[in-house]
């Protein structure tokens, strides 16, 4: 009855329902001659061509229909239907056919071994694009594994042996050709199926490849070694036979690959790595492995220059030392490798030791404490050891994977928080009135950039972080000369350790998480004080404000009422600022706190709203604030809106508060004349703020009207602001010209971002071409403008050519090509090169249309 219902069905919803019902019915049926009847009923719908219309909400998609139909075909042996689709000419059709074939072959092998083999071989030979090749190799691996699992001799003979016979010529005669490389990849995928399949492949091609590995033709020898290494590597996946099928070829392979390695051939090293790294058992004598390991160790420690061969050698050595089967070799060589990795220029040694740690927890437990110990000793002794050790440590953390990260905090059985806290203590071991004092500070500062990376990756909200926070609280209790030096080296690490705070308490129990949050809240006001104190260096003030932001975002006990108190204190001091530097520093801090509160949302969002209003007042209130204050206010709003994190709507919430006031201020300024110098000042900081909002908000938001139906929107204000800036830039005091450059940069950056949007956003933007295109061409040509500004203007034109509609551009094409031709005479080379690129794009666009 279900089959009858399928016949002639055209409604996609009914068809999907019928296919689902049929799949459920087929689930429990045994084979009984009904398969052919079902196949005839469903194959008429293959392939699925249905595409839902735009905005369709019925829930029927091409993918859902295709999934149910493929499941039906799998249950009734519909392999040949998919094979026919794989023979289609189009690449997309081939890929879809191969994807369907992989599903329909299913968990058991249908009686079409030679057909499937021939189809896959034909696809592999005809198409060399990655997507087709990837689909073919995935199916080959799946089929090979099922052959091994089911011990299906029919498929083994037809598929595995047949593939080897067919591809043997390409592999043996010309392994460096495209067909040869493709054939090797196919056979390597076959070997992933298991030991018996691997044995058949190796028996067919290994001896020929080994003979070519010792050929005088280096290109051919390299290709043969690469191919054989790829086949060896395939055997690692699932060996279920003993002895290892590689064993009969191992001695000859060692000799051949050694010859290539001795002539610095990368292929030889990679192939040797594939040969050695074939768990669960070694196919090579231990002394051979150790001899080879020592030879490449000697090469990587002699030369530390960037080199593909040395990089491959270091990876090979790391993989060998990370395997349990070579533990005697590891035990003897690891101390030398650790020592070398701590001696200055040691990139390849670090690569080797990182790879070994990534492969072995046991190696990690040996290496990490040794390097950690050297870091702390070097920092305390104020020597090069701290810098070199920190470099080794950051390399381990980045490349060593989870084995390294999980061993921080004391490792197995260790005390939580001991290790990373000891780095902070070593950095802070500065003794008053000591000859070593300045040296230790200098040495610590050299190591800090590397250690920051380590702390960002490793420290999580746990007892370790709590220990660091409590130690840091003691440092900032007293503001004396000694503690200021300690702050220089420790505060950036403290801030880095808060990187993952926003993710929550993780594995911490409730009591420890509460204790950590309370400790962090206690640091808010001290960090505010440090951030606002100009006697501290810029790096310390920046680190303090960043740490403050992370506490606001991540701590669950920083209440909105507490933040309002902090913000109120800063705002009160803004009203009586002493100089513009102090004002700018406080405004940046206020903006960062407001941005963090906005990202956090909830009750803290009200704090962010208050910050936006304060900053708007600074950049828009022409009665009380001079020009410098407006610039600071505009940049403050930029700092606020650039805050990272939070949901998708907090910026639009800020815009709803700020943009009406900003637009009103800009319009008031644009109404002024050149003679009335006080009017134009009304829009000085407002245009800067508008530019920052335009860089962060959707085009639809910044293209809406302002405070009235007749008012300008953000885009129009920015274009008018550019004209005003160019007009006023040569007037007034010297600093004013620099401030107008800030206005121009803000507008240009927003246009660059908005013109790169494409799609519907670009359609909105195209309504302003009549004003925008001449403006951009003007700024791309001006010699008095900064090089960055010229390039920004040209980038905007490039985006318009790439994303805009030709019909909208066409009317301005003569002007564009003429002006860009003039830019080719610009005195700066960077501008000329960019102009040539953009002009060529417009010329090609004209010819194409």
Mind explaining what this structure looks like?
- The chain is mostly helical.
- α7 packs parallel to α9 (153-173), α10 (178-191) packs parallel to α12 and α37 runs antiparallel to α38 (734-755).
- It starts with a helix and ends with a helix.
- This is MMS19 nucleotide excision repair protein.
- InterPro entries: ARM-type_fold (IPR016024), MMS19 (IPR039920), MMS19_N (IPR029240).
What is the CA-atom radius of gyration, in angstroms? 34 Å
| Secondary structure tally, helices | 44
Number of strands: 0
* SS strand fraction: under 5%
Biggest β-sheet strands, sense, barrel: none
Quaternary structure type: single chain
Q: Provide the residue-averaged pLDDT.
A: 80
Question: Low-confidence spans: pLDDT under 50, at least 5 residues?
Answer: 410-418, 706-710
Structure classification: mainly alpha
């Amino acid at each position: 009855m279900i089959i009858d219902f399928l016949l002639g069905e055209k409604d996609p919803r009914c068809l999907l329902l019928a296919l689902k019902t049929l799949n459920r019915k087929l689930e429990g049926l045994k084979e009984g001659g009904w398969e052919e009847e079902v196949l005839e009923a469903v194959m008429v719908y293959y392939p699925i061509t249905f595409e839902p219309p735009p905005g369709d909400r019925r829930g029927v998609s091409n993918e859902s229909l295709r999934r149910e139909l493929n499941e039906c075909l799998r249950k009734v042996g519909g392999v040949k239907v998919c094979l026919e689709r794989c023979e289609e000419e189009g690449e997309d059709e081939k890929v879809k056919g191969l994807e369907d074939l992989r599903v329909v072959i299913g968990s058991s092998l249908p009686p079409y071994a030679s057909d499937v083999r021939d189809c896959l071989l034909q696809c592999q030979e005809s198409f060399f694009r990655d997507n087709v090749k990837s689909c073919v190799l995935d199916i080959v691996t799946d089929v090979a594994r099922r052959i091994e699992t089911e011990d299906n001799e029919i498929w083994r003979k037809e598929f595995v042996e047949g593939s080897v016979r067919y591809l043997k010529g390409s592999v043996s005669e010309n392994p460096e050709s495209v067909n040869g490389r493709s054939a090797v990849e196919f056979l390597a995928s076959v070997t992933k199926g298991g030991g018996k399949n691997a044995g058949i492949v190796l028996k067919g091609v290994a001896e020929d490849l080994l003979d070519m590995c010792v050929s005088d033709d280096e290109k051919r020898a390299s290709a043969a070694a690469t191919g054989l290494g790829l086949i060896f590597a395939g055997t690692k996946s699932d060996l279920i036979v003993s002895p290892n099928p590689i064993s009969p070829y191992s001695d000859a392979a060692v000799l051949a690959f050694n010859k290539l390695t001795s002539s610095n051939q990368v292929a030889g090293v990679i192939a040797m790595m594939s040969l050695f790294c074939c768990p669960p058992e070694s196919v090579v004598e231990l002394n051979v492995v150790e001899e080879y390991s020592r030879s490449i160790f000697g090469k990587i420690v002699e030369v530390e220059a960037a080199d593909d061969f040395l990089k491959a050698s270091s990876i090979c050595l790391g993989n060998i030392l990370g395997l349990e089967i070579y533990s005697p070799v590891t035990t003897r060589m690891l101390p030398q490798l650790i020592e070398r990795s701590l001696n200055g220029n040691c990139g390849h040694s670090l690569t080797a030791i990182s790879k070994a740690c990534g492969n072995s927890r046991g190696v990690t437990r040996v290496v990490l404490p040794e390097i950690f110990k050297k870091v702390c000793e070097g920092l305390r002794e104020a020597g090069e050891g701290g810098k070199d050790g920190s470099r080794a440590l950051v390399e381990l953390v980045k490349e060593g994977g989870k084995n390294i990260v999980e061993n921080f905090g004391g490792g197995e059985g260790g005390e939580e928080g001991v290790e990373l806290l000891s780095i902070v203590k070593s950095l802070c071991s500065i003794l008053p009135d000591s000859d070593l004092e300045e040296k230790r500070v200098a040495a610590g500062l050299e190591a800090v950039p590397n250690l920051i990376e380590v702390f960002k990756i490793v420290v999580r909200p746990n007892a370790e972080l709590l220990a660091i926070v409590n130690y840091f609280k003691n440092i900032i209790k007293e503001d004396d000369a000694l503690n200021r030096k300690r702050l220089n080296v420790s505060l950036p690490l403290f801030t880095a350790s808060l990187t993952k705070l926003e993710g929550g308490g993780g594995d911490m129990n409730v009591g420890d998480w509460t204790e950590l949050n309370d400790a962090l809240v206690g640091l808010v006001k001290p960090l505010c004080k440090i951030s606002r104190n100009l006697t501290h260096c810029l790096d310390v003030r920046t680190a303090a404000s960043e740490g403050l932001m992370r506490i606001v975002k991540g701590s669950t006990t920083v209440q909105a009422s507490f933040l309002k108190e902090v913000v109120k204190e800063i705002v009160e001091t803004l009203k009586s600022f002493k100089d513009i530097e102090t004002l700018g520093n406080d405004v940046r801090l206020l903006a960062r706190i407001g941005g963090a509160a906005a990202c956090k949302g909830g009750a803290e969002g009200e704090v962010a709203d208050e910050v936006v209003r304060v900053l708007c007042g600074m950049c828009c209130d022409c009665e009380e604030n001079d020009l410098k204050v407006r610039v600071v206010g505009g940049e403050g709003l930029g700092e606020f809106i650039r805050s990272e994190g939070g949901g998708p709507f907090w910026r639009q919430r800020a815009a709803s508060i700020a943009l009406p006031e900003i637009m009103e201020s800009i319009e008031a300024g644009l109404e002024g004349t050149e003679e009335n110098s006080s009017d134009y000042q009304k829009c000085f900081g407002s245009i800067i703020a508008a530019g920052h909002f335009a860089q962060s908000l959707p085009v639809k938001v910044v293209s809406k009207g302002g405070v009235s139906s007749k008012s300008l929107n953000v885009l129009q204000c920015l274009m008018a602001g550019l004209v005003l800036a160019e007009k006023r830039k040569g007037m007034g005091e010297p600093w004013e010209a620099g401030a107008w450059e800030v206005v121009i940069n803000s507008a240009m950056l927003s246009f660059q971002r908005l013109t790169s949007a494409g799609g519907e956003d670009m359609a909105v933007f195209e309504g302003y071409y009549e004003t925008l295109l001449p403006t951009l061409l003007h700024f791309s040509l001006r010699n008095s403008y900064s090089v960055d500004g010229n390039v920004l203007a040209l980038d905007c034109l490039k985006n318009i050519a790439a994303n805009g509609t030709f019909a909208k551009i066409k009317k301005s094409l003569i002007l564009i090509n003429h002006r860009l031709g003039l830019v080719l005479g610009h005195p700066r080379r960077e501008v000329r090169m960019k102009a040539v690129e953009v002009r060529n794009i417009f010329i090609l666009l004209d010819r194409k249309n």
